[in-house]
Design brief:
Blueprint: H1 3-16, E1 17-19, E2 24-29, E3 34-36, E4 46-53, E5 56-64, E6 67-72, E7 81-83, E8 89-91, E9 100-108, E10 112-122
Parallel strand pairs: 1-10, 2-10
Antiparallel strand pairs: 3-8, 4-5, 4-9, 5-6, 7-8, 9-10
GO biological process, one term: T-helper 17 cell lineage commitment
Organism: Camelus dromedarius (Dromedary)
Protein name: SLAM family member 6
Length: about 140
């Protein structure tokens, strides 16, 4: 997909989106992996899915028939991000910078739906924030 087509798709989606009511809270551990689950009615034919972190596009999946193509749109996520067969977002080797707001924009033939997530990252000591050095 050409960048101009992707931009037009993003602009179109922002005009017809319906947003889910409350963000789903997802907890992750520093250095581990986490899954942001995508839940969507299978009876609606999905055309595309865009994942965003703090409002910036990080992954785009285009579906055509039985096949799909996923693009990691932000290079800094290239080796840590994957989209599962169910189109959920998997983030590996979590850092504190990964915490924040995530959203997915799902476009079907007739509508666009936005789901939101709040990812919280905890250190091995159970608090939000940078991991503390272990006493030597």
């Amino acid at each position: 997909m050409k960048p101009a087509q992707l931009l037009l798709l993003l602009l179109f989606q922002s005009q017809v989106s319906q947003t889910s009511s409350t963000p789903q809270i997802v907890n992750g551990a520093l250095g581990e992996s986490v899954m942001l689950p995508l839940k969507f009615s299978a009876e609606k034919r999905i055309m595309s899915i865009i994942w965003l972190h703090n409002g910036i596009s990080i992954a785009f999946t285009q579906l055509e028939g039985q096949s799909s193509l996923t693009y990691i749109t932000d290079p800094k996520w290239k080796n840590r991000l994957s989209v599962t067969d169910s189109y959920s977002l998997q983030i590996s080797n979590l850092t504190m910078a990964d915490a924040g707001s995530y959203s997915t924009h799902i476009t079907t033939m007739t509508s666009s739906v936005v789901s939101t997530y709040d990812l919280r990252i905890f250190s091995e000591y159970g608090h939000r924030g940078p991991a503390l050095n272990r006493p030597g």
